[in-house]
Design goal:
Layout: H1 2-20, H2 27-36, H3 41-51, H4 59-67, H5 72-87, E1 101-105, E2 109-113, E3 117-126, E4 129-130, E5 135-139, E6 147-149, E7 155-161, E8 167-175, E9 181-183, E10 186-192, E11 219-222, E12 227-229, E13 238-241, E14 256-260, E15 262-264, E16 276-279, E17 281-283, E18 290-296, E19 299-308, E20 314-319, E21 322-323, E22 327-330, E23 336-343, E24 356-359, E25 365-372, E26 377-383, E27 390-397, E28 400-408
Parallel strand pairs: 1-9, 2-10, 12-19, 22-28
Antiparallel strand pairs: 1-3, 3-4, 3-7, 5-6, 5-8, 8-10, 11-13, 13-16, 14-18, 15-17, 18-19, 20-21, 20-23, 23-26, 24-27, 25-26, 27-28
Length: 413
């Protein structure tokens, strides 16, 4: 514990000694003053003003000092010391100093048109190392001098506007903090005379020739003969093109469209800028051909598409030409034949798959046979007990089922 107290007393004494000495401050002295907390920032700034520094701060040094808490007043005193040293250098024996900061212009000559802007860029190097974070000012550009900071590559870019008339001037770059820069610090900036554009020659207008659609180059070019499903949208649109005898598209041509077994979702009335009409279509309810007709004057072109029936939605039960919906009444002395046809939501017939028939009471009604063909499913029924008794008849096909109430009429006396 005593050793710690002694060390603290020695550190405080060294801090006071650094604050009272008239010798230039070393980098370690400045760091100790900023981190020790014995002096305020104003006192540290006064000490730098009186004693100055024994070293020339680099851009990295200034960044480190700011990170340690140096405020703008301290940084201004540090910059003032560096500027005073550059005007009246003090030679002190010591180790070899670091390489000077050199300026390398990316272009030694920059040209720009009158009134336009150009980029003037300089690279800052210390030896082979780029110097980032350095604040540079460009003088000689007229008006306020622009300021830029070098990036991680050590490059600072300035936007300079050309003069109103042709002229040449020299731009020079300098460090804002007064640090000495070596190398080529100037660039020749040349403003070119304004370019005068001659007005285009006046050409007498010729009467426009109206292009005419060519029968061999006009018609449906996409979407025809496609297949789909009734009631649904066609997968791809139909495209109708109008071209002249040279094959060039003709824009703005009126086109009349008509559809059978379908509905036009889009119905443009004339060709677009590439001479085309794009038609979106919805198939009609019938599982039959859908046709779209385009008419231009005497030219008529037709596109045909082929919708198929949709998925099975219900079972149609026919007795002869009559449709059986709920009740079925049989003759007591004759068999009855039923036709079972699966259909989609629009009534389009579908092939029969897995036809089954069953009755609830075999004494009233019996299933004599079940067959299928290209027309549909055939169910043969044989009547049993007469006299008005009823039973349930279940028919199933293509994943669908329908239930009927079947009865046998009484025999006439």
């Amino acid at each position: 514990m005593k050793r710690v107290v002694v060390l603290l007393i020695m550190l405080a004494g060294a801090t006071r000694a650094g604050a009272q000495t008239s010798e230039p401050l070393r980098k370690s002295d400045l760091i100790r003053l900023l981190t020790g907390g014995a002096l305020s920032h104003g006192e540290i700034a006064d000490l730098i003003r009186r004693n100055c520094l024994s070293f020339t701060p680099t851009a990295r040094d200034r960044t480190d000092l700011a990170a340690l808490g140096a405020d703008s007043l301290i940084m201004a005193r540090v910059a003032g010391c560096a500027q005073g040293r550059s005007t009246s250098p003090v030679t002190t024996p010591g180790p070899v100093t670091a390489a000077p900061i050199a300026v390398v212009p990316l272009q030694s000559r920059v040209t720009v048109e009158a009134g336009a802007e150009a980029i003037v860029a300089f690279a800052l190097r210390r030896g082979a190392q780029p110097q980032g974070g350095a604040l540079l000012v460009l003088r000689g550009g007229g008006g306020s001098d622009p300021v830029a900071t070098t990036d991680a590559r050590g490059i600072a870019s300035f936007r300079v506007r050309g003069a109103a008339a042709a002229m040449s001037r020299v731009l020079s770059v300098a460090a804002v903090d007064g640090a000495v820069l070596t190398g080529q610090t100037t660039v020749e900036f040349i403003t070119l005379p304004p370019v005068r554009v001659a007005p285009p020659p006046v050409v007498a207008a010729r009467p426009l020739r109206t292009a005419r659609p060519a029968p061999t180059s006009t018609g449906w070019v996409a979407g025809t003969a496609q297949r789909g499903v009734v009631g649904r949208r066609a997968a791809v649109p139909l495209i109708f093109e109008v071209r002249d005898s040279t094959g060039a598209p003709i824009a703005g041509v009126p086109v009349a469209l008509a559809v059978a077994n379908g509905r036009l979702l889009t119905s443009p009335d004339r060709t677009d800028s590439v001479g085309a009409v794009r038609v979106d279509l919805e198939f009609g309810p019938r599982a039959a051909a859908t046709s779209v007709t385009a008419t231009i004057g005497s030219l008529v072109r037709q596109a045909t598409l082929y919708p198929a029936a949709g998925p099975a939605a219900r079972l149609l039960v026919l007795r002869g030409r009559d449709t059986v919906s709920r009740r079925l009444e049989l003759d007591p002395d004759a068999p009855t034949n039923l036709l079972v046809v699966p259909a989609d939501a629009f009534g389009n017939p579908l092939p029969v798959r897995g036809l089954l028939a069953a009755v609830g009471d075999g004494s009233v009604l019996k299933v004599a046979g079940v067959t299928t063909d290209s027309v549909g499913g055939h169910v043969s029924l044989r009547p049993g007990r007469a006299g008005g008794s009823a039973t349930n008849l279940a028919l199933q096909a293509s994943g669908l089922r329908t239930d009927l109430t079947a009865s046998v009429r009484a025999r006439r006396p």
